[in-house]
Each structure stands twice: as structure tokens, then as C-alpha cells.
Amino acid sequence: MVERGTSRLRLSAHHTVVGIAGATGSGKSSTFNALTGLELSAVGVRRPTTSWATACVWGTEGAGELLEWLGIPPRHQTTRDSMLDTRRESNALEGVVLLDLPDHDSTEVAHHLEVDRLVALADMFVWVLDPQKYADAAIHDRYLAPMRTHADVMVVVLNHIDTVPEDRRDAMVDDVRRLLAADGIPDVPVIPISARHGIGIDQLKGEIEKRVADKRMTAGRIEADVRAAAAELRAAAGDAPTRTLSDERVEALRADRARLRTELAAAATVLSDLRTDAARRLGEQVSDELTLLAMPHATLSVAVRQHETDAPQDADAPGVPLQVGERWVRFAPSGIDEVELLLAANTGSDPRPLDKGASGGELSRVMLAVEVALAGTSPVPTFVFDEVDAGVGGAAAVEVGRRLAELARTSQVLVVTHLPQVAAYADRHVVVRKSHDGTITSSGLTLLGEEEREHELSRMMAGLTGSDTALAHARELLEVARTARA
């Protein structure tokens, strides 16, 4: 609400946004056309199925940004003083942005969602009722009653009054007022009109002109939003007096907090010691894996640190750090530790954070090494590796394939590779092929059968097709991989 109100106040104060809303068949669009003097909105069976509102603007200066904020596309905007306007009247409606909203009772969900969106943004509302459905709960329960705090920025019109016998019109208008009183808005003006025959249009236009002249609609709408929010808050909070605690109860709670913080510090210290020992073991295991993944000089370490801070001046202040021995450290739901993976890619190099000390290919292999070391304990269901074999060949490539297969025992593993030593360890081999029909280039996936796989691996090894030697090597490689996976 605050953001919406602030955004509206930043925009044109010269303009007043007036939304015309109603149900299907209420004559809402014909009312819009009668007010504008232009056939802007299709009516009846000619009305298109659209979720967009139509806007007519009197006075274009400063209106563009406001219309953009309202989300009205340019093709649905018309200026009343444009060359389409053949009627030259007074400038009493100068500054009005008149919106014809979609039908609020439409079966299209997008329509009433758009109505709800714009009702939240408009400065003033004209609710159009008709003699057949003026008591319909759809408008009373969904809009009029819930917006009782916005009565000062509402007008209700009873359209198609020409279809009601003259001797029954006053009684029907009184009945509408009775329903509005039941909605909690007894003072909202009710104007009987006939958009088709022009009955009451001047009175409606005069009501809009009077309110626009007051230049209070924008601020009035925001004040109404504040009243609505305050009413909701009051209803939620109730009228009961604020509870207070005795001094004894406050002291007891402080003692409980001190005891809990002491227990928390002890538990956090134990967790930190266990985490430090696990970090050392994980670093050693990952480093051993990296040696087998063609990174023989790389060392991974897991740093476990605490963020020390000064002793607090106010022990009751929120966010107070935790006292662990003689130190004050920050803590979180995971404990007092901050954990970071550090990589020394070469002998003698300083350990650096992974995002600063590893290339793309190295990062993939570190990830693989970590996951192999944690195999069976990681909750990750699917891994995707790209460039995991970058800069690798020969026996190291076989080790990459072997470890990917090991990881695939507990997770789904997707690997993009150009190495036959890696591809041979896959349970399924899929080839990506690009095709071009002279106009469009597309890529497709082909799942290979056993014989096709042998030929594809031989092509990957030799770069040739039809090589008997390469084919024999491919079959041998597949057999080695099957044995390792068994």
C-alpha cells in the first residue's frame, strides 16, 4: 500500500484516474463512450474478448508516465483533444484519465484479474449497475462492501433506466441505495442514467467534474487505502489492553535466556570441533581424488572460521553475539562457523576461494572430487558436468570416467564430453547432432544402441569411420568400463 501510494504521488498530480467498472451487459462501455463523446469501446456483441482496459485522456501533458504506470498499452489510449475529437466542449474534464475496465464477472480469469489490478490503482470509481442485476452479489460482496472505506471516491450509476417504467424508477433507485447502505456505503451518490439515450449523462459528468475540480481524488484514494489498512489492523489486533509482565517475570525470562545462551555456546563449540575435524578429513580425501583427476599438484582445504566481534554494550539488544569462552562471536542457525572451500591449484601457490582460484575445467573436477568423497551422503539427486574432462586425456580420462560412474551409483549424472574414455563409462550414450535444411539449423538427440555406440566411440578415438583398429579399441574400452561398473 505504501509503495503504491508513493508511486502514485510521484506521477502527474494534474490528472485524476477514473475507473468505470461493471458487469457484463451493464452498459459500462456505452457509458464510457457517452462520457467521452467518442466511440472508443465496442459494446454489446461487438465488444472484443480482451483483458485490456481502454483509456481516454483529457490533457496529454504528464499523462504518458501515468498511463505506463497503469499498464495501459498505447494502442488502447486515446486523447480527448486529439484530432479524433470533433466535439469542442468546456475543459471541465481537463486532467481526467477515464478507464473502461473489463467485465468484472467475466468467465475469463484474465479479465477480472485486470479489474482487480486497476481498482487498486484508480483514484475514483464509477460502478455501473443495471436494472436486471443491480443486487448481484458478485459486485456487492467482492467490491462495494469490502471497499466501504473508499466511499468518498465512489459514484454508483444505474444504467438502462429507460427500460424501467417511469413510475418505478424512484423506487428502484431507493432499493439500490438500500443495498449500498447494507454494504456500509449509504452516502455514495446513485445516479440513474441511460447511456443509449443520454439520460443522466450530464449529471454523471458533472459529478466527475466536481470531484476532479476539488483535486482531492488522488489523496482521497490514498487516505482511503490507509483507513482500510488501519481497519484490518484494528480487527486483527482487537481492543484488549496490551499485556504487561511483572518485574519478577522479566527477571525470570532473562535468567532463562542466559542459561540457554550458555548451553548454546557449549553446543556450538562441540559442533565447531566436529566440523573442524570433518573439514580436515574432507580436504585430504578430495585432494587425493584430484591427484587421480589429472590435478596432481592441487590441494583442497576446508577453512572453518569464526567471526569475532566486540562485547555488546547492551545484552538485551537484538542480534547480540554469543560468548564462547573469552570471545564474542556471531552465530546463526548453523552454528558459529563460517566454512569456505580453498584451492591451491599448484605447488607453492596460496589457497584461494574456488571462485577465484579455479578455472572452469578445474572447478568441474573439484566438484566431481567433492561429490565422490561425499558419495552416498549428498542429497543432490542430479549432477550436470560440462568440461569436466578439459585438459585431460589418457589414463586420467579413464579415472574421470570411473569416478563419474561411481557417483552415478547414488545420483543421476549428466555429462557433456568429447572423450571416449569418459563416454564409455556411461549407462546411456546420447549423441547430439546438428542439421541444416538450407534455412534453419537445428540440433537433435539420438540414443545409441550397442553397435551404434561401438562405432561412435571408435569415431571419437580415431576421428575416422570404418577403422577396424579403432572399432576393436572401442569394444575393449567398453568391456573395461562394464567390468568397472559391475
Radius of gyration: 37 Å
Number of domains: 3
Instruction: Report the CATH architecture of the largest domain.
Output: 3-Layer(aba) Sandwich
State the fourth-level CATH superfamily of the largest domain: P-loop containing nucleotide triphosphate hydrolases
Helix and strand composition category: alpha/beta
Index terms:
17 strands, Rossmann fold, 3 domains, 3-stranded antiparallel beta sheet, alpha/beta, flat, 7-stranded mixed beta sheet, 486 residues, 15 helices
Sequence-ordered SSE layout with sheet pairings:
Elements: H1 2-10, E1 16-22, H2 28-36, E2 54-57, H3 63-70, E3 77-79, E4 96-100, H4 109-119, E5 124-129, H5 137-144, E6 154-158, H6 166-182, E7 190-192, H7 201-214, H8 217-237, H9 247-292, E8 299-306, E9 308-309, E10 322-324, E11 327-329, E12 337-344, E13 352-353, H10 354-357, H11 360-373, E14 382-386, H12 394-407, E15 412-416, H13 420-423, E16 430-436, E17 441-447, H14 450-462, H15 468-485
